Amino acid sequence: AQKVTQAQTEISVVEKEDVTLDCVYETRDTTYYLFWYKQPPSGELVFLIRRNSFDEQNEISGRYSWNFQKSTSSFNFTITASQVVDSAVYFCALSEAYSGAGSYQLTFGKGTKLSVIP
Amino acid sequence: GAVVSQHPSRVICKSGTSVKIECRSLDFQATTMFWYRQFPKQSLMLMATSNEGSKATYEQGVEKDKFLINHASLTLSTLTVTSAHPEDSSFYICSVSGGFDTQYFGPGTRLTVL
Question: Which of B38, B33, B43 has its CA nearest to residue B4?
Answer without folding.
Answer: B33
